[in-house]
Design a protein that fits this description.
Layout: H1 2-8, H2 11-33, H3 36-53, H4 63-92, H5 106-116, H6 119-130, H7 135-142, H8 146-170
Helix pairs in contact: 2-3, 2-4, 3-4, 4-6, 5-8, 7-8
């Protein structure tokens, strides 16, 4: 099928491949994202990549292994990009922080954040910045008042700011 598709680009060949591997790709995407809608979107994106790169398949491994690698790498890259965007959004809430050095990796910057907060505080930050929840919704989830949520977020931001300043002084 792959060879025939690469020769004449007949859509029926790709449709057969799609039908044969779509469920496997979706299940892997779902396992990596844990979000059905995101997994569905990623599955479609992965098949676009496969379609565009089918002529690069070298037959060195099984086709399912090749698809697995593409799917896994795509999901990991997208997740990593999302983490970067979340961290950048979080940093925007700290306008008083000094700029990080250009050679700081995402992992290094995340380490500063993780050092400054505990697991519960990190969850609060994720609810606010990753999930975009409003303070009143977080308050309902934690069964506390909205001002209490805002105060906790402020204290966390202050601690993160202190952690960044300490990290900058060490450098």
């Amino acid at each position: 099928l792959i060879k025939q598709f690469n020769v004449d680009q007949h859509p029926a060949c790709f449709t057969i491949l799609y039908n044969r591997y779509m469920n496997r790709v979706y299940r892997l995407c779902l396992r990596l994202t844990r979000q059905p809608e995101t997994a569905h979107d990623f599955t479609q994106d992965v098949f676009v990549k496969i379609f565009c790169k089918l002529d690069h398949f070298k037959f060195d491994s099984s086709f399912s292994t090749w698809i697995y690698a593409i799917t896994f790498n795509y999901c990991v890259d997208r997740t990593r990009l999302k983490r970067h965007l979340i961290f950048d959004q979080l940093l925007e809430s700290f306008p008083q922080l000094p700029a990080m050095a250009e050679d700081d990796t995402f992992e290094t910057r995340m380490a500063y954040l993780v050092e400054a907060v505990d697991e519960d505080e990190l969850l609060l930050l994720k609810l606010k910045y990753e999930h975009g929840m409003l303070a009143r919704d977080i308050a309902k989830q934690y069964n506390i008042s909205e001002p209490a949520v805002k105060m906790r977020l402020k204290r966390i931001r202050d601690r993160v700011q202190t952690g960044f300043h300490k990290a900058q002084q060490v450098r």
